[in-house]
Amino acid sequence: MKKILVQGCSIVPVRGPVIDKGAIAIAGDRLAYVGPAEELPPGWEEGEIIRAEGRVALPGLVNIHTHAAMTLFRGYADDLPLRQWLEEKIWPVEDRLQWDDIYWGTQLALAEMIRSGTTTFADMYFHMDAVARAVEEAGMRACLCQGLIAIGGAGNERLRTAESLVRDWHGAGDGRITTMLGPHAPYTCPPDYLAKVAEVAARLGVGLHIHLAETRQEVEEIRSVYGSPPVAHVARLGLFELPTLAAHCVHLTEEEIAILAEKKVAVAHCPESNLKLASGVAPIPALLRAGVTVGVGTDGAASNNNLDLLEEMRTAALLAKGISGDPTVLKAEEALAMATINGARALGLEEEIGTLEAGKKADVVLLNIRQPHLQPVNDLVAHVVFAARGGDVDTVIVNGRVLMAGGRLQTLDEERIYREANRRIRALQGLSK
């Protein structure tokens, strides 16, 4: 069994106090010891040693809502409202995407996420076997679902593809890959189709990942057609009897917040995408007060325009303070929990990842704090949330495997990824390759 010892770092375990002079011992894919260096059990000197002075160790960040291959559309359709952005720009070019396009767009996303400290992500798109293949090769952890849209036909065919994804990939990559079913939204999936998706998910033993209450237009449309706003509408159809991850949840009534809490629906907060598309700001303090599990997602790079979860976490905290007028709302430790253990809980992985403690999977990120914007070291948690950025990430370990060391990716060929991404988006736009 391979042993790794991370030595000399400060540790932010998320649960428990910061450890100033710490050590992290990894045996295989698990954390064997997390604590003060002077209390490290003997026998670790013969393994691989990572000297981590001037570094702070965090659990790997968990991005609970994105569309990885949409990195290909970064900067392609900016400054538009959501429905116009989707219907006039994104969906037409997505119709031309092939398996290889999705594979290379995902590779680009994985490189970006590893470089900025994300080790686990939840993804909804199509050709998801291409996404799974890229994840398996890169060594990341992911919860994947086929995006299901019933308008325009082909809904049943997409559902069969989604079932194949679950059968073929759930538990793959040494358990790093899990799956859900992904009905896109109530405005693209009519009630009978949503009910059918829930029935299939129950039979397969997986949860659901769905966009809900993202825009006022969506809320008004669903209320007009079905007599209830989106969350109440979906709840009435029985979807929340299954583990559900609801992305966005920007426009909610008090009754809907109570429904989310009662049914233990997890919410993916995507503040930067919601701001960029002018969709609004989700009522995160109210959701947290109600006991809803809230994690952080970037959404796709076409509407963000990056996948830096450190930046997203900071935006979430600052927005909550600014909107509420209360600087004590969403404190640093709460924001960090949203990007780690809350995200893990939203994906049903809280027993495996999301904190640094012995027995959990060895998903570890090291930040370089020997930089002007992270000095002096007054409060490491506050520094991580309010001052750190993706470029500060030095080392990334997932499942006990080093994916980035000293700022160099170990499992991905970045130069080839850049060439392929640029060639493919030019071809999709009808330009020369």
What does this structure look like?
- By secondary structure, the protein is an alpha/beta fold.
- 37% of the residues lie in helices and 22% in strands.
- It is built from 15 helices and 18 strands.
- The chain has helices at 82-94, 99-115, 128-138, 155-169, 191-204, 216-226, 230-236, 254-262, 271-276, 284-289, 309-324, 332-338, 341-346, 380-386, 414-428, and strands at 3-11, 19-27, 30-36, 48-51, 55-59, 61-66, 118-125, 141-148, 177-179, 182-183, 208-212, 244-248, 266-269, 294-296, 364-368, 393-398, 401-405, 408-409.
- The strands form 3 sheets. Strands 1, 2, 3, 4, 5, 15, 16, 17 and 18 form a 9-stranded mixed sheet that branches. Strands 6, 7, 8, 9 and 10 form a 5-stranded parallel sheet that branches. A 4-stranded parallel sheet has the order 11-12-13-14.
- Helix 3 (128-138) links the parallel strand 7 (118-125) and strand 8.
- The termini are far apart.
- The mean pLDDT is 96.
| Tally of strands | 18
Model regions low in confidence, pLDDT < 50 over at least 5 residues: none
How large, in whole angstroms, is the Cα Rg?
Answer: 21 Å
N-to-C CA distance? 46 Å
The averaged pLDDT comes out at: 96
Strand content: 15-25%
